[in-house]
Amino acid sequence: MLVQEPLEQHPDPLLSAMHTDLADIIGKWLKREGDCSTLIKNLTFFRREALSEPCACMIEPSLVFVVQGAKQLLIGDQSFAYDTRNFVLNSLDIPACSQVLAANTAKPCLGLALKLDFRVMAELIAQSGLPPPRERTNERSTALGTMTPALLEPFGRLLALLDEPDAIAVLAPLIEREIHFRLLTSDLAARLWQIASVGNQSHRIARAINWLRVNYAQPLSIDELATHAQMSTSTLHHHFRLLTAMSPLQYQKWLRLNEARRLMLNERFDAASAAFLVGYESPSQFSREYGRLFGVPPKRDIDALRRRGMAQ
């Protein structure tokens, strides 16, 4: 497996103090293990109290970091391990696996995710007068950046707004815009300039992904998808796999199986009904592919998830 480790650096006392303050805020709002949304619509918190095996998830275009503990994100053959020294930046809606590397009940892994808006990034590039980065970058959808006080400081002000809910509608968008600007001056600036450039391959793949997310239950025509993304079929396959670590067909299958899992767990559908609803014509094929993705057949998986939910 290709591993991308966090950057080594000496502890920064200022960063440590800022992380401690943010950990206190997150711990105040999230006292139990899990994830939670906040009054700031683009901001979510997470808390983990034990090490974990890789767990399947869907990550959005977002900035993710921990203020205590450590995690890693697994995408295809790449691993992005991160602690308080760095952050993860993701530019597309892609399937991944998340794993907790450092956490316990006394010192849980605490962190947050902020959804990014690359239209705001493009506006800032046009308005700021910042010179374009000289270095070249690859087109991977996920990367590790180095956390700095300049990037972390506005998060302190953003989280403080949770105690002042009447100010959120006015002030949160301004602080989020500042965070987008700080990212444009980070060590991932070259990647962000590339992502924000309308018409590049990342934008076209994003169009293809959006189409798949809406039409996942329909038969997949690669020619139709390529036309929608304004790419040739070969270019679509190459860049789709480069950015998501899977083919369009694999991506559709992941969407179908996870939606079927949700239907069985939350809506109480049986396996056959869920399979037909998400686009499968054969329940046996659905069961085989479900078992390959989640490790166990549908009924056993759902029963285990329900027992786990009752135990928490």
Can you walk me through this structure?
The protein starts with a strand and ends with a helix. It is an alpha+beta fold. The model is unreliable at 1-10 (pLDDT under 50). 49% of the residues lie in helices and 20% in strands.
Outline of the structure:
The chain is built from 12 helices and 11 strands. With 312 residues, the chain is an alpha+beta fold. It is globular, with a radius of gyration of 20 Å.
Tally of alpha and pi helices: 12
CATH domain fold name of the largest domain = Jelly Rolls
Radius of gyration equals: 20 Å
Describe the main β-sheet briefly: 6 strands, antiparallel
DSSP helix fraction = 40-55%
How many DSSP E strands?
11
| Structural class estimated from helices and strands | alpha+beta
CATH superfamily of the largest domain: Regulatory protein AraC
CATH architecture of the largest domain: Sandwich
Give the uncertain stretches in residue-range form: 1-10
Q: Give the overall average pLDDT.
A: 91
Domain module tally: 2
Shape: globular
**For this structure, what is the CATH class of the largest domain?**
Mainly Beta
Spatial ordering of strands, largest sheet: 2-3-10-5-8-11
Q: How large a portion of the residues is in β-strands, by DSSP E?
A: 15-25%
Q: Span between N and C termini?
A: 34 Å
Name the helix and strand elements from N-terminus to C-terminus, one letter apiece.
EHEEEEEEEEEHEHHHHHHHHHH
Keywords: Transcription, Transcription regulation
Protein name: AraC family transcriptional regulator
Pfam families: AraC_N, HTH_18
GO molecular function, one term: DNA-binding transcription factor activity
